[in-house]
Write a structure and sequence with these properties.
It is a single chain. The protein is of the alpha/beta class and about 450 residues long. It folds into three domains: about 140 residues, 3-Layer(aba) Sandwich (Alpha-D-Glucose-1,6-Bisphosphate, Chain A, domain 3), CATH 3.40.120; about 200 residues, Alpha-D-Glucose-1,6-Bisphosphate, subunit A, domain 3 (Alpha-D-Glucose-1,6-Bisphosphate, Chain A, domain 3), CATH 3.40.120.10; about 80 residues, TATA-Binding Protein. About 35% of the residues lie in helices and about 20% in strands. It contains 14 helices and 18 strands. Helix 1 packs parallel to helix 2 and helix 1 crosses helix 4. The longest helix is centred in the C-terminal third of the chain and has 19 residues. The chain is globular, with a radius of gyration of 22 Å.
């Protein structure tokens, strides 16, 4: 059996790669691991997004958890950070979220959380893989088998928590919310209305099949158009499991994770609440962000791409704010993982408390032109050992000098290589990406098989 977990839990095509059998095995492995650590009858919080396969995989996961002697506390459709929050604020030993985030409806995934609401470590995920591979999970009998439990108040408690993080009420703000027909379709509008905002919803009517279907944070043009159409002050866009936030100004200009993070960092810096006057980002963060933070005398810690690596750095250094360009933003004062609705509440609070429109707040940083290309159909595993590609990178970096940079990395969740360049001009960034992407295709594209019989 190959590795089950990637950079963000396990994910794949539902019923083909992520099967009920594998899901049940993971549930049994999780409880076995918890039992080994001293938990005699662990409770596991189980949530899901509304996609079609979620009910099937939930049933399998619950069967696995109970089969190994754990109780499964099912909270239904809820954002990923909601499951993390409920896990941390209860006596649960672990949490599990069934979602493929921004992926299309045919995919699904599972993210596991420990008792404090943080995602499992690489070592803990490796231990689960070993238990699955060795078929060594517990199989108790009689009343030692676990039960399926429910908590009708769970969603309300999560909504109350989100609302409690607002610095001010949001009365007077007219906002449009794109829920991606996902896990936040009900929760997000409720939170914003509870805080006094006038809320218009788009893509907040999930039917199991329409999650992320030209909706949500991976389609920012939708919220940009909706803000203008409805004459709103701010647009808010989440992804399928609501751990991301992308915003839009009243003029329909996109405000991505880098800019939102810069706005929050400056606000916390001015209020004296930014731990060590330091913020954590990844190597994908726009160079303009770093320049802006330098101007504000805020230090920047840079990590690998992935919110789990941002979180690791934050916890190691006792920092409280970090995030990614994609809109994964982590506020450790109020959450244990990226929370798109929480991030929106924090952002809207800054808009309301300062009296400045989002358009003005977004001028905290000036973005360098950035071009990103995903090169598909290549063998990403050979990237590190292909010197011709790295020579192309060296040449382009030298051409850009100190006014830009190049980033090349294999995706941790998809079979592709990402090529990104930033430069003082769009033309320079595009040229660098084109050259390096061509080198990736030339040297990593697998040769076509010879015809049979030749």
């Amino acid at each position: 059996m190959g590795a089950i977990f990637g950079t963000d839990g396990t994910r794949g095509q539902a019923n083909q790669e992520l099967t009920p059998e594998l899901t049940m095995a993971l549930g049994r492995a999780l409880v076995t691991l918890l039992h080994t650590g001293g938990q005699q009858r662990p409770t596991v919080v189980v949530g899901r997004d509304p996609r079609w396969s979620g009910e099937m995989l939930e049933a399998a996961l619950v069967a696995g958890v109970t089969s190994a002697g754990g109780d499964a506390l099912c909270v239904g459709v809820l954002p990923t950070p909601g499951v993390a929050h409920l896990t941390a604020r209860s006596a649960a030993a672990a949490g599990a979220m069934i979602s493929a985030s921004h992926n299309p409806v045919g995919d699904n995934g599972i993210k596991f959380f420990g008792t404090e609401g943080f995602k499992l470590t690489d070592d803990e995920e490796a231990a689960l893989e070993r238990i699955v591979a060795e078929r060594s999970a517990r199989r108790p009998t009689g009343t030692d088998i676990g039960r399926r439990l429910s908590d009708p108040s769970a969603i309300a408690r999560y909504i109350e928590h989100l609302a409690s993080t607002a610095q001010v009420d949001l009365s007077g703000l007219r906002i449009v919310v794109d829920g991606a027909n996902g896990a936040a379709s009900s929760v997000a509008p409720q939170v914003y209305r509870h805080l006094g905002a006038e809320v218009i919803t788009v893509h907040c009517t999930p039917d199991g099949a329409n999650i992320n279907e030209r909706a949500g944070s991976t389609y920012p043009e939708v919220i940009r158009a909706a803000v203008i159409e409805h004459g709103a002050d701010v647009g808010i866009s989440h992804d399928g499991d609501a751990d991301r936030l992308i915003a839009a100004t009243h003029e329909g200009v996109e405000v991505d994770g880098d800019v939102i993070l810069a706005i929050l960092a400056r606000d916390m810096h001015l209020r004296g609440t930014l731990a060590q006057d330091t913020v954590v980002t990844t190597v994908m963060t726009n160079l303009g962000f770093k320049r802006a933070m330098e101007g504000l005398h805020i230090d920047v810690v840079e990590t690998r791409v992935g919110d789990r690596y941002v979180l690791e750095a934050m916890r190691e250094r006792k920092l409280n704010l970090g995030g990614e360009q994609s809109g994964h933003l982590i506020d450790l004062d109020h959450a244990t993982t990226g929370d798109g609705v929480l991030s929106a509440v924090r952002l809207l609070s800054v808009v309301r408390s300062t009296g400045e429109p989002l358009k003005e707040l977004a001028t905290v940083m000036s973005r360098l032109p950035q071009v990103l290309v995903n090169v598909r159909g290549v063998d990403r595993d050979r990237l590190a050992d292909t010197p011709e590609i790295w020579e192309a990178v060296r040449v382009e970096e030298a051409r850009l000098g100190g006014g830009g940079r190049v980033l090349l990395r294999p995706s941790g969740t998809e079979p592709l290589v990402r090529v990104m360049a930033e430069a003082e001009t769009q033309e320079d960034a595009q040229h660098a990406v084109d050259v390096i992407a061509d080198a990736v295709r030339d040297h990593l594209t697998a040769p076509a098989p010879d015809p049979v019989g030749t």
